[in-house]
Amino acid sequence: MKTKLNPLGLTALVFALAVINAAANTLWWEGANTNWDINTSLNWANTSSGLPAKFNNGDSVIFDNHTVGITNIWLVTNVQPAAITVDTASYNFIFTGTNAIAGTGSLSKISAGTLTINTTNNYSGGTTVGGGSIVVTTPNAGQFGTGSITLTNSGTLQMFRSTTTDDGSTSAALTNALIVPTGQTGVILNMPRGTLSSSLTGGGTLNFRADATRGDITGNWSAFTGQINLTGINGGNFRCNNSAGYPLAKINLASGSVLVSRLAITPIVPVGELTGDTGSSLTAAATGNDGLSVVWRVGGLNTSAAYNGNISGTVGLIKEGSGNWTLAGTNTYTGTTTVSVGILTLTNSATLTNSSSITVNAGATLNLAGAAPFNELDIYTNKTLKGGGVVAAVSVVVAAGGTVLPGDGVGVLTVSNGTFSSAGLITMELNRTNATATNDMLKASSITITGGVLTVTNLGPDLHTGDSFKLFSVAIGGSGFTTVALPVSNILNTVQYVWTNRLALDGSIQLLNGASSSPSPTNISYTVGGNQLILNWPNGQGWRLLAQTNNLLTGLTTNWFATGVTTSPFTNTVNPANGTVFYRLTYP
């Protein structure tokens, strides 16, 4: 029998055991002591056999209710597990020490309860917070390694000092990419005086709490397509510091939360949809720490939504998208307001009184029908109303020093089912060759003018005797304009215009003396220098240059096209590859 236990057989047996020990295992933490070391302490149990085990790099580990009560885990050395699962349904765990979790493995936190990470790590397999909280209690970087952080099942990322008042100390930036998958919810309690540089993707719901002060959000969140719910405590602001903004996301501000920009040079920052509770705020204060001047571009998701919070400071707004965005809070902001597309509605006590400039583009509507107390749009001194859209209000009132510029280029500004009165400045433009509208117009059920200035500018070719332009949809009432400034001559000053003012009769002006209705026939003169062809004809008569290019054998046909050229000289480079090029003048 002993002869069978020869040295060769014994060597073979030892070798076989070494292979078994080296294989990667899945281990439960049982915790005979606090040490997480390598191939030393029997703090683990093999999940397959249930026998005590030592940890080796490459093993997968589980922290759950198998522990005997040791939950403060001390990293004696750098460890490289294949995967870490922390189930805190029964116990809260703490990872601490001066060493790190390294390697390519991942960390998954599940169930209610808390995992606290006090170590600086560099594992690359990513972190999933799938329930409860992961808490960071040091200001250092790297607790989550270098991989992404995925938030699911209302899992919470609680950053350093996120639940305390501001003590002036700073935190390292968080740079890990953040993911909240569609159909999932994640929570971030942000750090004060630190930078969140993480990108954000996914389509789920992110509940974000800004704590204390000066926690800038510099990461690019423009690809996120879900819901962002903002809250703030201890004076916390959501401080946007990335101009890419949130064009595909919906943002809601809870009462007490504040959205500000930390970007310089008054950027335009997109938000797909913006809602807010009473007591929330968009603001830009005098100092950068409380927000810099910004224009929020809201509505690109084409949804209808309501913002019930306040807007103040040097904030501007652009309403985009086909939906109806309703403002119902107190607005004292001094930036510009543009209704680019869709409808911007004001209700309750919401006003645009302090907005420096209000633009309503053609096809868009500014709706004040539900705004208290008078459903009125007031344009005060040094304020401007312009555009070719619709203002739905009981009345629009322009004070002395206020300005109205109807039209987008040349167009119609409409006060829908309401009155218009002005003691301010109204500027309009003419272009007799326009296909749709030859002049700006202000349209309202009644129009009252009690002073101010009307200025009319000609953008097109010479005006002709008999030309008539209806500037107001109805005859103006009141005392009329103090000054009416109409075009006095053509561009070459060869024709002096004589007007008749019919504003009080039918809202129009008519030209009694101008250019002849048709200019005398003329010719195109030309010169050639090198490879440059230079064409000349009389300016100021309304001529337009047409051209056609054909094969050399085809010659002249009827395929004329407009070059867009209305004044001479016109210079064109001769291209030998073109067979024949013809030019002619047409009027108008």
Write a structural description:
Among the domains are: 25-142, no CATH class; 373-517, no CATH class; 525-586, no CATH class. It is 3% helix and 43% strand. The strands form eight sheets. It has a 20-stranded parallel beta sheet, with no helix packed on it. The chain has 588 residues and is mainly beta.
SSE order and pairing:
Layout: H1 7-22, E1 26-29, E2 35-36, E3 44-46, E4 52-53, E5 60-63, E6 72-75, E7 83-87, E8 93-96, E9 106-110, E10 114-117, E11 127-130, E12 133-136, E13 149-151, E14 155-158, E15 178-180, E16 185-189, E17 195-196, E18 200-202, E19 205-211, E20 216-217, E21 227-233, E22 238-240, E23 246-253, E24 258-261, E25 268-276, E26 281-284, E27 294-298, E28 305-307, E29 310-313, E30 315-319, E31 324-327, E32 337-339, E33 343-348, E34 357-360, E35 365-371, E36 376-379, E37 384-387, E38 390-392, E39 395-398, E40 403-406, E41 412-416, E42 419-422, E43 425-430, E44 441-443, E45 446-450, E46 453-458, E47 468-470, E48 476-480, E49 483-485, E50 498-502, H2 503-506, E51 508-513, E52 525-529, E53 532-536, E54 544-550, E55 561-562, E56 570-573, E57 580-586
Parallel strand pairs: 1-5, 2-6, 5-7, 6-8, 7-9, 8-10, 9-11, 10-12, 11-13, 12-14, 13-15, 14-16, 15-18, 16-19, 17-20, 19-21, 20-22, 21-23, 22-24, 23-25, 24-26, 25-27, 26-29, 27-30, 28-31, 30-32, 31-33, 32-34, 33-35, 34-37, 35-38, 36-39, 37-40, 38-41, 39-42, 40-43, 41-44, 42-45, 43-46, 45-48, ...
Antiparallel strand pairs: 1-3, 3-4, 47-51, 50-51, 52-53, 53-56, 54-55, 54-57
